[in-house]
Structures
1.
Amino acid sequence: AQSVTQLGSHVSVSEGALVLLRCNYSSSVPPYLFWYVQYPNQGLQLLLKYTTGATLVKGINGFEAEFKKSETSFHLTKPSAHMSDAAEYFCAVRASGGYNKLIFGAGTRLAVHP
Amino acid sequence: DGGITQSPKYLFRKEGQNVTLSCEQNLNHDAMYWYRQDPGQGLRLIYYSQIVNDFQKGDIAEGYSVSREKKESFPLTVTSAQKNPTAFYLCASIRTGNPNTEAFFGQGTRLTVV
């Protein structure tokens, strides 16, 4: 069965600093991995996804993530944080077995301070 | 524009009352999902449906019921049997048949017991 672990429920960075949000997955089959962002009292918006092919995936708002099979990781990064990046971020893996479900991590709340 | 519409945005329920949350999509997606979100717990799957007139329980289905009479609609009823219904509820849909497609989310309904 697939699962997702996000290390760090809260991350705080200074404006302009590197953002690194960690995600490790467990999957017995090649995974399909996703990062979503959620602003307060809103739904989730897709940042980026990894399916097959290039292991470095670029998404919206300057975010990118690298799929590392050997480390079972899919960490999200952004070179320079902006105040508008403050939100909650969720890593997800697509379940196998034809159920079309997404399994989510617990989320990481990113705070950006001046 | 295609998307998912949840209504209402805010809902208040009295003790012992059933309430129904609406979810409508015009994306022509076969699969639809209901998630519950509580602080620090990520998204937990309540029910999902992969086709009209069929649905399955997720991880926390007790106290909830759903129907899927139309492809576009997947309403969730929170019954009086749900002892702690105060939460943020998110509806999502996925296009099936291609495992690398992402889920699309509605804007959520915040349910509060008064």
2.
Amino acid sequence: DAGITQSPRHKVTETGTPVTLRCHQTENHRYMYWYRQDPGHGLRLIHYSYGVKDTDKGEVSDGYSVSRSKTEDFLLTLESATSSQTSVYFCAISDSDRDEQYFGPGTRLTVT
Amino acid sequence: GNSVTQMEGPVTLSEEAFLTINCTYTATGYPSLFWYVQYPGEGLQLLLKATKADDKGSNKGFEATYRKETTSFHLEKGSVQVSDSAVYFCALHSGGSNYKLTFGKGTLLTVNP
């Protein structure tokens, strides 16, 4: 299995609070991604990174920001959490832009 | 833009039955195609892939053939087991400057003993 961990694995937070999710990899892969998974929508890309300090928006980026200061860590921040951001968040990594992606175990976030 | 359409579930089969999950796609260029599997409470795992037309990906008894003429990548298994119960996602990657995977909505498979 690819060495990808996500923390926390579960979190409950209140509307309006900031939340940061962490993805850590030990594979030294260049590309990292954040997806959210919701019933009826499959997985949707939030943000991705193609190198240290190089990030770009995905299809559902509103209300989210990311940072990547080291190859191994990719942080996802919900600046002011809303109930619509209740979801399961997955981090993924890949070694090139055409390779398969490897997924972390997910973080279940509930915003009350 | 890119899109993936896969058959809606849930799909319920008896053990040893034949499985087909349909997947069709729309993409520019020559995408790579993937099937991922998600077991309950876990992340997605790559099941198989194909990177060019007429390639057949296979793994754990599952197969899928990249059909460019019909823009399809249907997943098949000749004899399913209870342990195959999971959600299956078809996905494509068009590469180049577009790094992201485009996923179908997933198909829940339940295999009964």
